[in-house]
Design goal:
Strand order of the largest sheet: 3-4-7
Helix content: 25-40%
Order of helices and strands: EHEHHHEEEEHEHEHEHHH
Number of strands: 9
Distance between the termini: 22 Å
CATH superfamily of the largest domain: HUPs
CATH class of the largest domain: Alpha Beta
GO molecular function: ATP binding; glutamate-tRNA ligase activity
Family: Belongs to the class-I aminoacyl-tRNA synthetase family.
Number of domains: 2
CATH architecture of the largest domain: 3-Layer(aba) Sandwich
Keywords: Aminoacyl-tRNA synthetase, ATP-binding, Ligase, Metal-binding, Nucleotide-binding, Protein biosynthesis, Zinc
Protein name: Glutamyl/glutaminyl-tRNA synthetase class Ib catalytic domain-containing protein
Domain Glutamyl/glutaminyl-tRNA synthetase class Ib catalytic: 4-85, 135-268
């Protein structure tokens, strides 16, 4: 088996909330349990929503939780200078060009350009070189993606129904999340990914997209193991929205109970006893039993 390599992959588009912190701890626990290597990868392609305070908050939350990582930026300045996704635009663009070429040769309509928006639902095809057009990957009807989920078991998703045409290049010409995430994970050598259950369709989209090209094909469900955890819920079992999880101007760091609330949520998701939530170390100890 390849060595376990995972990543924390926050986006600096808001203050990190309880769900982000829980995902961080789950990822850290699984990676450390396997004796693996953990990267900090910050997804900053959404420049319109990026704020210095949000970027700084990522490092503060990691420190607050007591987590360590083996590779990645040590602070905001180090990130912007050496780790920003903007530094990887050539790699993303190379994959986009290959997908576009494939669409004009062996797989017609694999990639289509669209000018539709929230206010304009018209979706007549336009040339790929059309200014202001987004590129969308067209998933053939009936396409299903199957993989083994470490927590959810054997999983099969109807990608053709869930995400029939997802964006791979935004209207500003920059690679979209699904492409950038695959390229970044290949670059890091990622073999373990922990996500919320609501991101299972994105996992399926990335696996399908990566399979279209030989250079991205190593991002597959044999080499990469996925763990999708249940979403946080309230006392009635309803999913917590972001607005319920945090004061929007502070995030998880403002929790009255401190990081204990994070550890308690992790213990519940892992079906560990209540005493396991005493600290990060007790969580780790109970998980290893």
């Amino acid at each position: 088996m390849p060595p376990v390599v995972s990543r924390l992959a926050p986006t600096p588009s808001g203050y990190l909330h309880l769900g982000n912190a829980v995902n961080f701890v789950l990822t850290w626990l699984l990676t450390r349990q396997a004796g693996g290597r953990l990267h900090l990868r910050i997804d900053d392609l959404d420049r319109a929503r990026l704020r210095p305070a949000y970027l700084d908050n990522i490092f503060r939350v990691i420190d607050w939780l007591g987590l360590d990582y083996d590779q990645g930026p040590r602070g905001p300045d180090d990130f912007l200078r050496h780790y920003s996704q903007l530094l990887h635009l050539p790699e993303y663009n190379a994959v986009l060009r290959r997908l576009a070429l494939l669409s004009t040769t062996k797989q017609p309509n694999l990639v289509m350009a669209s000018t539709r928006s929230r206010t304009n639902s018209t979706d007549a095809p336009v040339p790929l070189e059309t200014p202001g057009a987004a590129w969308r990957a067209h998933v053939p009807p009936g396409t299903t993606v199957a993989f083994t989920d470490g927590w959810q078991g054997e999983t099969s998703l109807s990608l053709g129904s869930l995400m029939p045409d997802f964006v791979i290049r935004k209207k500003d010409g920059v690679a979209a999340y699904q492409v950038a995430s695959v390229v970044d994970d290949l670059c890091l050598g990622t073999t373990l990914i922990v996500r919320g259950l609501d991101l299972q369709p994105s996992t399926a989209a990335q696996l399908w997209l990566a399979g279209q090209l030989s250079e991205t094909a190593p991002f597959n469900a044999t080499r990469v193991h996925f763990y999708h955890h249940a979403l946080l819920t309230d006392a009635t079992g309803q999913k917590l929205s972001k607005s319920q999880q945090l004061p929007l101007d502070a995030g998880v760091l403002s929790q009255v109970q401190g990081k204990q609330v994070v550890f308690q949520a992790v213990a519940r998701l892992l079906n560990l006893p209540a005493e396991a939530a005493e600290s990060l170390q007790t969580l780790q100890g109970h998980l290893c039993r």
